[in-house]
């Protein structure tokens, strides 16, 4: 029997680590901060629009999305999506940590099941867990219902319908818990900022690909999941803003180069066939990073007078 989604959910994390089964989405600023922990990449995915009247069903729950839901989803999508081509195709461009899928866990998950970043501050996406910052507040109860049934979370039992645990995480169409709400808002602000400073340069390149051959360009973005590319286009864009940022990006490249080499060496020791595609991807990243380092080194003593350079330095160097 189908029933409406419960409007309130409670949450209590027991640090079981079940949801830490892959590296999280991080802003570029967070990737800079955790340069020795996470391999950074740009994630490109298709972003079909959410439409009013769309049916959402999870377990025994079902709802129809309203006009208000659709416009709230659309407003959040504008934080990370770009319209590409003449047929209304949209793609999402965000930054992400990546790793070998065979590890089956986030790089920052310690053997005791706890997050190694807890003391220094977890990424905002992780503080917001189990909420999804890319979904409007008024639909977070749907996210929680989906996650309470979702594969990666099954058996975690940290999400419960109703307000049995105090305080509730979501209730009455909004996020109740203050720390989770603040993390969701920080994540959205980071997406909005980095959309202009990093995402747009990637989207412009993709638009050129679409203009040349739309079918081929679209085929390069998977229908499910995401395509990852090196962070190099974003690093070159940021590094060109000022000598300080060029040096910052060079420091990041050096740390990433060492981290990627260590991870490849460990994968070679594991001798798993399914690690090979990621090893190829990471080797391509190493080549791209080395070329970008040379370009940034030649920019290091110049300033292109970018009007927002100081703002970008404050944002990325904090
Ligand atoms: S699955 Fe739930 S209880 Fe386990 S670490 Fe994640 S949020 Fe915490
Ligand atoms: S950074 Fe920490 S909290 Fe986030 S997924 Fe990794 S281990 Fe889990």
Hetero groups: iron/sulfur cluster
Helix and strand element order: EHEEEHEEHHEEEHHEHHHH
The structural class is alpha+beta
Number of helices: 10
> How many runs of DSSP E, i.e. beta strands?
10
Strand content: 5-15%
Task: Summarize the amount of helix as a percent range.
Answer: 40-55%
Number of structural domains = 2
Which regions contain 5 or more consecutive residues with pLDDT less than 50? Answer: none
Strand order of the largest sheet: 7-1-8-9
**Average pLDDT across residues?**
90
Main sheet properties = 4 strands, antiparallel
Query: Termini, distance in Å?
Result: 52 Å
User: Which of globular, elongated, flat, extended, rod-shaped describes the shape?
Assistant: globular
For the CA atoms, what is the radius of gyration?
21 Å
Keywords summarizing the entry:
318 residues, alpha+beta, 2 domains, 4-stranded antiparallel beta sheet, 14% strand, binds iron/sulfur cluster
How would you sum up this structure in a few lines?
With 318 residues, the chain is α+β, with helices and mostly antiparallel strands.
Description:
This protein has 318 residues and is α+β, with helices and mostly antiparallel strands. The protein has 2 domains: 9-229, no CATH class; 232-318, no CATH class. The protein is 44% helix and 14% strand. The protein contains 10 helices and 10 strands. Strands 7-1-8-9 form a 4-stranded antiparallel beta sheet. The radius of gyration is 21 Å and the shape is globular. The N and C termini lie far apart (52 Å). The mean pLDDT is 90. The protein binds iron/sulfur cluster (2 copies). One iron/sulfur cluster binds next to loops.
